[in-house]
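Reminder to self: tokens first, then the designed residues, so the page reads top to bottom the way the pipeline ran.
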């Protein structure tokens, strides 16, 4: 087994990236109770951003909370579930994320990746797929995840749906502004497909924003050439865009992905964020849906004080999904047996958080090159007084008219 350096994880937030740190690490001491469980641990791993100005530790912390709850309820057929983590690094290079994927492949004790949240999903999942490593619950944001048989996204594509919430609010002349990295740039393609198929509209154009840009006035000015802008960008750019629009005479509708709207980001923005329309691939982390309530309760119990947001919900959900499916496997729990089990799910749900009838046996055929989009629906919302409030009556379709 590859020896991993334990990582001390601290709470923080942001989108798309990070910096230094060695790969891997065991769960925080005391975060899971394995008393009474026997046998070798069943290990999964999270690739995410850890140590940087804007790290994403929440996915790992959500996965830890789920693993602790799984173990408290008997583990996986009596064996403990263990979560490790690898730092996917910053947006300037895929090197760290790629090394994380290679290390997972080399360590046969790691059965699957869960809770993926990093900037180089295309590169990492390509490596995992070639080795037959299951990828459970990644955001459906790259061609590899949307096409590869090792990939099992659970959430809807909120990145593709930022423009649809604008269209549903009456916008017809929509542009996409994006942080200029590959994963965010794909929002132009995905939103184009979503609008054309689902709402009968076309994207007016894309507005790239350099990762290091701080003055967004030129981009906001371009965005004014239309009635709405879908913001596919990291939180610092999102905040800068809203600050710029507040300072000028701009009245475009704005839409954003729920994973960008972290609690601390909304708190810092105050009333500047009011009225931003929201696309979410999963029910909102602050909602009253029973599965979300359970998520918050398990975070409070097993990861007290850690962030409760869409990113930690994703890590928690992917880990619980892995455990629920692994518990159904007769015989050895291996990469191969997990792949087989996940490939044959019908009417699968995790505490009611997935759309009714979720199945991995039915490829998504409404659009080409997206067969792994098993959940083609989203939750719509709006920002009011520093919080995201749900506006849709449950899930609504992205690629067909609601």
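Designed residues (402 positions):
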């Amino acid at each position: 087994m590859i020896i991993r350096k334990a990582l001390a994880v601290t709470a923080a937030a942001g989108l798309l990236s990070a910096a230094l740190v060695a790969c891997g690490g065991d769960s925080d001491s005391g975060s899971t109770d394995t008393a009474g469980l026997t046998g070798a641990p069943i290990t999964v791993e999270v690739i995410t951003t850890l140590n940087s100005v804007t790290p994403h530790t929440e996915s790992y912390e959500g996965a830890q909370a789920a693993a602790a709850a799984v173990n408290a309820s008997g583990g996986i057929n009596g064996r403990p579930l263990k979560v490790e983590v690898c730092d996917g690094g910053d947006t300037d290079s895929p090197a760290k994320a790629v090394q994380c994927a290679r290390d997972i492949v080399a360590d046969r004790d790691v059965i699957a990746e869960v809770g993926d949240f990093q900037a180089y999903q295309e590169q990492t999942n390509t490596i995992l797929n070639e080795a037959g490593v299951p990828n459970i619950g990644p955001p459906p944001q790259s061609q590899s995840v949307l096409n590869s048989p090792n990939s099992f996204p659970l959430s809807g594509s909120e990145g593709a749906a930022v423009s649809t919430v604008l269209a549903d609010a009456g916008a017809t002349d929509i542009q996409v502004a994006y942080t200029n990295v590959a994963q965010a740039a794909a929002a132009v393609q995905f939103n184009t497909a979503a609008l054309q198929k689902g709402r009968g509209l076309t994207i007016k154009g894309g507005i790239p924003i350099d990762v290091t840009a701080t003055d967004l006035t030129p981009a906001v000015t371009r965005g004014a050439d239309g009635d709405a802008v879908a913001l596919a960008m990291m939180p610092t750019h999102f905040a800068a865009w809203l600050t710029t629009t507040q300072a000028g005479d701009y009245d475009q509708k704005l839409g954003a992905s729920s994973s960008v709207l972290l609690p601390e980001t909304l708190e810092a923005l105050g009333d500047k964020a009011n009225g931003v329309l929201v696309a979410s691939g999963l029910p909102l982390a602050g909602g009253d849906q029973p599965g979300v309530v359970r998520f918050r309760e398990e975070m409070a119990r097993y990861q007290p004080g850690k962030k409760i947001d869409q990113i930690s919900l994703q890590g928690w959900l992917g880990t619980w999904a892995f455990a629920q499916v692994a518990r159904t496997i007769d015989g050895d729990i291996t990469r191969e047996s997990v792949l087989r089990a996940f490939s044959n799910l019908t009417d699968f749900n995790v505490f009611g958080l997935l759309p009714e009838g979720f199945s991995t046996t039915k490829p998504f055929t409404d659009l080409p090159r997206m067969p792994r989009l098993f959940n083609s629906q989203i939750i719509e919302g709006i920002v009011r007084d520093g919080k995201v409030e749900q506006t849709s009556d449950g899930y609504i379709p992205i690629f067909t008219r609601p």
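The longest helix spans residues 182-199.
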